[in-house]
C-alpha cells in the first residue's frame, strides 16, 4: 500500500504542476503555446502507448484463462447473463439521468456559447456518415484475430477469446491444461509489467494536462462554466446512484473498493482514457478479492458494454445541441433517441472519440444539425475526464457485484 500511496501522491503533484506549467506558457509565452503543447503532449502519448501495448495480450490471455478455468458452461452462461443484466440496467439508468437533468437544467437555453467554426467537426462528421448496422456487425466480428490485435479492437478480441476459451473448456484437461497454464503465466507476466508502466503515469498526466491548459488557458473554464457545471452535476448524481447500488450489494466493503481503485480513477480522469487503466484495474480488483476468473471474463466485456459515463454524456450532449439550436423535442422523440443510443453505442468502445461519433450520427437521425458538435469540441477534453473516470467506477462495481452474487468475493483479497 505504501507504493500505491506514493504513486497516488506523485500523480496529484504532476496534475498540479501540469496545470501550473500550462498556465504559465499560455499567459507568458502564448506564441509558443502550440509548439509547447505538441511536444509536452508526447509524455502522455508515451504513457498511453505503453498501456495500449499490453491491452490486447492481457485481454486475450486473462479472458481465455478465466473461461477455460470455469470449465462449466452453465457457469459461463450464468455469469455472462448477470453481467449483461447489470450492463443493460446501468446503461439505461445512465441515459435516463442524462436525459432528465439536461431537460431540467437546460444548459443550452441559458448558455451563450461562442459559435465555433464547423470545420473543426468535419472529421467527426465524415466518420459518422459511415455508421450502419453492417459496420456495427463488422466491428464486433473479427475478420482476423491478428488484425484485431494490431488495431487493439477490444470487442473483437473478446469475441474470439470467449469462443476459444469455451473450446478449451470442452477439450478435456489432458489437452487444455498446458495451454491454460501457459496463458496464465503470460497474463501474470503482463500484470507484472503493469507495475513498471504505472510509474510513468505521473509524467503522462503532467504532459496531457499541461498541453490542454497551455493551448486553451483558463478562459475555457469560464466560457463553458455553465455547461461543465451542469454536466458534472449530472455525473455527480450518476455517481450517487452507482455508489448507492454498490453499497446495497457490497456493504462497507464499497469503501475498501474505492480505496483500491483511487489510482485508476485518477489516471482515467487525468489522461481521459479508461483504457489506460485497464491492466491496473484488473490487478486491483483481484487484490480486492474478486475472483480472477470473473474479473477476466467481465471486465473486458464491461469495456465494450458498460461505459456509464459515456452513455450519460450522449443524451446530455445530444439534447444540449438541440437546445442551442432552439429545437424542441417531444418526450416520445427523446425516449426514442434514448433507445437508439442504447443500441448504437454498444461495441464502439475502440473507436477514438466514440461518444462524439455516436452523438453526430444520432443528431443527424433526429433532425438536429450535426455541425452543433463543434460547439462542444473545445471542452470535450474536460467532459471526457469525467466520462472516463465514471466508466472505470461502473466497471469496477459491475465486476465486484457479479463476484459477490457468485459467492466468489473473498474478504481479504484474491490470489495474484
Question: Could you characterize what this model shows?
Answer:
The protein is an all-alpha fold. It has helices spanning 2-28, 33-70, 73-105, 107-110, 122-129, 133-140, 145-150, 154-169, 173-198, 201-216, 219-223, 225-250, 253-260, 262-271, 278-288, 292-305, 308-324, 331-344, 354-365, 373-376, 380-405. It is built from 21 helices and no strands. The chain starts with a helix and ends in an 11-residue tail after the last helix. Helix 8 (154-169) packs antiparallel against helix 16 (292-305).
SSE diagram, text form:
Elements: H1 2-28, H2 33-70, H3 73-105, H4 107-110, H5 122-129, H6 133-140, H7 145-150, H8 154-169, H9 173-198, H10 201-216, H11 219-223, H12 225-250, H13 253-260, H14 262-271, H15 278-288, H16 292-305, H17 308-324, H18 331-344, H19 354-365, H20 373-376, H21 380-405
Helix pairs in contact: 1-10, 1-14, 2-8, 2-9, 2-10, 2-16, 3-12, 3-16, 3-17, 3-18, 3-21, 5-19, 8-16, 9-15, 12-17, 12-21, 14-21, 15-16, 16-21, 17-18, 17-19, 17-21
Structural descriptors:
21 helices, 79% helix, mainly alpha, 416 residues
Note the main sheet: none
List the quaternary state of the chains.
Answer: single chain
The geometry reads as: globular
Quick one: how many beta strands? 0
Global mean pLDDT: 80
Name the helix and strand elements from N-terminus to C-terminus, one letter apiece: HHHHHHHHHHHHHHHHHHHHH
How much helical structure, as a percent, in the residues? over 70%
Helical element count?
Answer: 21
Structural category = mainly alpha
In percent, how much strand structure appears in the residues? under 5%
Which parts are unreliable, with pLDDT below 50 for 5 consecutive residues or more? 112-116
* C-alpha-based Rg, rounded: 21 Å
Q: Gap between N and C termini, in Å?
A: 15 Å
Amino acid at each position: 500500500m505504501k507504493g500505491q500511496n506514493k504513486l497516488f501522491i506523485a500523480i496529484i503533484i504532476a496534475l498540479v504542476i501540469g496545470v501550473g506549467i500550462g498556465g504559465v506558457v499560455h499567459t507568458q509565452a502564448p506564441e509558443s503555446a502550440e509548439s509547447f503543447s505538441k511536444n509536452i503532449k508526447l509524455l502522455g502519448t508515451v504513457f498511453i502507448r505503453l498501456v495500449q501495448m499490453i491491452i490486447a495480450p492481457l485481454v486475450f490471455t486473462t479472458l481465455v484463462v478465466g473461461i477455460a478455468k470455469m470449465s462449466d458452461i452453465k457457469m459461463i452462461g450464468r455469469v455472462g447473463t448477470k453481467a449483461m443484466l447489470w450492463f443493460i440496467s446501468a446503461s439505461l439508468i445512465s441515459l435516463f439521468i442524462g436525459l432528465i437533468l439536461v431537460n431540467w437544467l437546460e444548459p443550452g437555453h441559458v448558455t451563450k456559447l461562442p459559435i465555433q467554426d464547423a470545420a473543426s467537426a468535419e472529421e467527426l462528421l465524415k466518420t459518422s456518415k459511415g455508421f450502419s448496422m453492417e459496420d456495427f456487425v463488422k466491428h464486433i466480428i473479427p475478420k482476423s484475430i491478428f488484425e484485431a490485435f494490431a488495431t487493439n479492437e477490444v470487442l473483437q478480441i473478446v469475441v474470439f477469446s470467449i469462443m476459444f476459451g469455451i473450446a478449451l473448456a470442452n477439450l478435456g484437461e489432458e489437452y487444455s491444461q498446458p495451454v491454460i497454464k501457459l496463458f496464465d503465466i503470460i497474463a501474470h507476466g503482463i500484470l507484472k509489467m503493469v507495475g513498471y508502466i504505472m510509474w510513468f503515469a505521473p509524467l503522462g498526466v503532467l504532459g496531457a494536462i499541461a498541453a490542454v491548459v497551455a493551448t486553451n488557458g483558463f478562459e475555457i473554464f469560464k466560457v463553458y462554466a455553465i455547461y461543465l457545471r451542469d454536466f458534472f452535476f449530472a455525473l455527480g448524481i450518476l455517481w450517487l446512484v452507482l455508489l448507492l447500488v454498490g453499497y446495497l450489494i457490497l456493504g462497507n466493503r464499497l469503501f475498501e473498493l474505492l480505496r483500491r481503485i483511487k489510482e485508476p480513477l485518477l489516471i482515467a480522469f487525468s489522461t481521459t482514457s479508461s483504457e489506460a487503466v485497464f491492466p491496473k484495474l484488473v490487478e486491483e480488483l483481484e487484490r480486492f478479492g474478486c475472483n480472477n476468473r470473473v474479473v477476466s471474463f467481465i471486465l473486458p466485456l464491461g469495456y465494450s458494454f458498460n461505459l456509464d459515463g459515456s452513455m450519460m454524456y450522449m443524451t446530455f450532449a445530444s439534447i444540449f445541441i438541440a437546445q442551442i439550436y432552439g429545437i424542441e423535442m417531444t418526450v416520445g422523440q427523446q425516449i426514442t433517441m434514448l433507445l437508439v443510443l442504447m443500441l448504437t453505442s454498444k461495441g464502439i468502445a475502440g473507436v477514438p472519440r466514440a461518444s462524439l461519433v455516436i452523438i453526430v450520427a444520432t443528431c443527424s437521425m433526429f433532425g438536429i444539425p450535426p455541425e452543433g458538435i463543434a460547439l462542444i469540441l473545445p471542452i470535450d477534453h474536460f467532459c471526457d475526464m469525467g466520462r472516463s473516470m465514471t466508466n472505470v467506477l461502473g466497471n469496477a462495481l459491475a465486476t465486484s457485484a457479479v463476484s459477490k452474487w457468485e459467492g466468489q468475493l473473498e474478504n481479504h483479497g484474491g490470489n495474484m
